[in-house]
Amino acid sequence: MTEDATTDGPTRLDELVEVVHVLRAPGGCPWDADQTHESLVRYLVEETHELIEAIETGDRDAMLEELGDVLYQVLFHADIAAATPGEGFDVQDVAAHMTAKMVGRHPHVFGDAHAETASDVEAVWDDLKAREKPARTSVLDGIPMGMPSLALADKLLGRAEKVGVTAAGPAVESPDDEEGLGALLLQLAASARERGLDPERALRGALRGLRDDIVTAEASTAGA
């Protein structure tokens, strides 16, 4: 661990927040000052993938650096919001909102609710999210359809289970570990390439069908 700032002075995080502010303020960096939430999206995606790679390869030094890069993106967006009329929040507001959210989402830790297992916790979360966001009427609400297709598949399959929908198709013998699963997925991608098929488009097409099945099941339940 590196030595942090004294308790009487600014923390390292305070210093980084100030660096972001100075770079974007008049007399700072013209490039930083020109950025918007929209222009930074590609950097957020890139930095996130770099962090994922560092985690998956077990590279401690790279993880330290990439966590900082992702944190910087958060601080950058917060500073833009603080200077944008109609947005008017800063990183302290972001932190306060997240603290309240996490405390509220964990009544089994900070309140009187009881949850002994991970499944119990998920049930508590589902109930809390339903009360927090009553406008969400579908299990599909809140799922960004622009997610990478395999991650989206995992998410949609989880939501499908909640409404009793299963993904139809021929039975596939699944490997018992991620190494085997990775080899199988690579084999499928290679086979698709040989046949001139687009595996990404194919999976997204199947996911649209699964999404339609979920919507149908929800409509059937609502009309029952």
UniProtKB/TrEMBL annotation:
One of its GO terms (molecular function) is nucleoside triphosphate diphosphatase activity. The keyword Hydrolase applies. SUPFAM superfamilies: all-alpha NTP pyrophosphatases. The keyword Hydrolase applies. Signal peptide: none annotated. One of its GO terms (biological process) is UTP catabolic process. CDD domains: NTP-PPase_MazG_Nterm (cd11528). InterPro entries: MazG-like_dom, NTP-PPase_MazG-like_N, NTP_PyrPHydrolase_MazG. Keywords: Hydrolase. NCBIfam families: mazG (TIGR00444). This is Nucleoside triphosphate pyrophosphohydrolase. It comes from Cnuibacter physcomitrellae.
